[in-house]
Design brief:
Elements: H1 4-7, H2 16-20, H3 25-34, E1 37-42, E2 51-57, H4 60-67, E3 73-74, H5 90-93, H6 105-113, H7 118-121, H8 125-142, E4 144-146, H9 147-164, H10 171-182, H11 187-190, H12 204-219, H13 225-230, E5 233-234, E6 237-238, H14 241-272, H15 274-282, H16 287-297, E7 303-308, E8 312-314, E9 317-319, E10 324-328, H17 329-332, H18 367-384, E11 389-390, E12 395-396, E13 405-407, E14 409-411
Helix pairs in contact: 8-9, 8-18, 9-10, 9-14, 10-14, 12-14, 14-16, 14-18, 16-18
The protein binds protoporphyrin IX containing FE.
């Protein structure tokens, strides 16, 4: 095993602080070209002990192969986060949809995917459009505003409250939970915490909320995702307590933070490419391919992890059973073997087989909902903020999981 990154820090793709400066595309490109499957160390970070290290997978083909071969690359053995969970948490976390392998994954996935089919989410479209239009128009009146805090975060959080059927006044709770969990590598959100904020024992307040919501919706069903879920059957049985709590976690945190990152990431990318922003202004019908190109060029999720179930070989590299295999979506999205001129941002790009929503059995179940929010936001920006300009640097999250954007000062002009 070559300790490639440890001997050459220029090849570090692990340290969360790197990502505060943006995604390290140069490093990814170098690794993709020279060692597309490379070994990396996992040094100790504040509050998180060192890990055993991992294989980083950079090529488009290989990211697809690993994601689509769950019997060899398990989502369940060590779960899907780069950092190992505490051994005592493993059992509970394995009942999360994201952390299940087929065939156990199939019945829960089937139950949940019904909630997010394009047909099921059509009814959300008027809400998403109206909310987007209102937020963008309020921002325009203000003139100078923060793209994330004043506009995009509020759309992601309002949509989440709407699909969960919770009061708007509870939005703040979801904001804080997501910051605590996804922001666990960023000191802005970790001050004063001494335990791992992702551990179920640190999330008691969130799980208590999930319990109360479940009890309420069992008594008083509404027209929302939680009501459907608590009355649903999974393989002929009611959803288990652990499955429900873990799914609530996925919606509250994973679905929330990814969209919170995708929305400003997309708009920033358009602002950084004025010719493409102008093209979208002149041809608003390009909103759908523009969304795909923004997802390719500025993907919100950086990586997910699998664990090898038995010895295998990938690109000539020997991988042992139990080793971590980590797929890097932004690296795959710039692979020149898949994309012509991969570093060029072109909203008319076709085909566009980006992997930002993952691949295989775990491919994002709510991709249509995320796309709907992005399309609504691009359309509103083009119509109402055609002269939008960035007034200062974007503040990014220190995280090797989500390419989060915390603040971007902008002006409607
Ligand atoms: C642009 C926004 C989003 C991106 C980029 C994104 C990305 C992803 C990725 C990469 C995966 C696959 C993980 C893996 O293979 O291990 C995934 C799975 C998932 N996503 Fe998303 N996601 C987004 C929005 C959402 C939203 C809005 C929701 C829910 C409201 C959501 C819910 C889920 C769930 C439940 C899974 C697990 C599916 C399974 O394990 O079968 N995502 N997402």
């Amino acid at each position: 095993m070559t300790d490639f990154a440890t001997v050459n820090p220029a090849n570090d793709v692990f340290h969360p602080e790197i990502y505060r400066r943006g995604i390290p595309y140069d490093t990814y490109a170098r690794l993709r070209a020279t060692t597309p499957v490379s070994w990396h160390a996992e040094p100790e970070l504040p509050g998180v002990p060192a890990g055993p290290g991992f294989w980083a997978v950079m090529r488009h083909d290989d990211v697809q192969y690993v994601s689509k071969t769950p019997d060899l690359f398990s989502a369940s053995l060590g779960c899907t986060q780069l950092r190992d969970p505490a051994p005592g948490d493993l059992g509970f976390l394995r009942s999360m949809l994201l952390n299940m392998d087929p065939p156990a994954h199939n019945p829960l996935r089937k139950t949940v995917s019904h909630l997010f089919t394009p047909r099921s989410i059509t009814k959300l479209e008027p809400f998403i459009r109206q909310t987007t239009d209102r937020l963008v128009s309020q921002a325009r009146e203000r003139g100078d505003f923060d793209l994330v805090e004043d506009v995009t975060d509020l759309l992601a959080l309002s949509t989440l409250a709407e699909i969960l059927g919770v009061p708007k006044s509870d939005q703040r709770l979801f904001f804080d939970w997501a910051n605590r969990i996804i922001g666990y590598q960023d000191e802005e959100y970790t001050e004063g915490t001494d335990s791992d904020p992702r551990s179920p024992s640190s999330l008691r307040d969130m799980y208590d909320y999930a319990d109360s919501l479940r009890a309420y919706r069992l008594r008083r069903p509404g027209d929302d995702v939680i009501s459907t879920l608590v009355h649903a059957q999974v393989g002929g049985q009611p959803i288990s307590d652990a499955e429900f709590k873990n799914f609530f976690f996925l919606l509250a945190v994973a679905g929330n933070d990814t969209t919170r990152s995708a929305l400003p990431g997309g708009i920033l990318t358009l602002l950084e490419h004025p010719d493409q922003f102008a093209l979208l202004r002149s041809r608003p019908e390009l909103a759908a391919p523009a969304v795909e190109e923004c997802l390719r060029y500025a993907p919100p999720v950086i990586l997910f992890r699998r664990t090898a179930t038995r010895p295998t070989t990938l690109r000539g590299v020997e991988i042992q059973a139990g080793e971590k295999v980590v797929v890097f979506y932004p690296a795959a999205n710039r692979d020149p073997e898949e994309f012509a001129e991969p570093d060029t941002f072109r909203i008319t790009r076709s085909p566009n087989r980006h992997v930002s929503f993952g691949q295989g059995p775990h491919i994002c179940v709510a991709a249509a909902l995320a796309r709907m929010q992005l399309r609504a936001m691009f359309t509103a920006v083009v119509e109402q903020l055609p002269n939008l300009v960035q007034r200062g640097p974007a503040e990014r999250l220190a995280s090797n999981l989500v390419a989060g954007i915390k603040r971007v000062p902008v002006s409607a002009c």
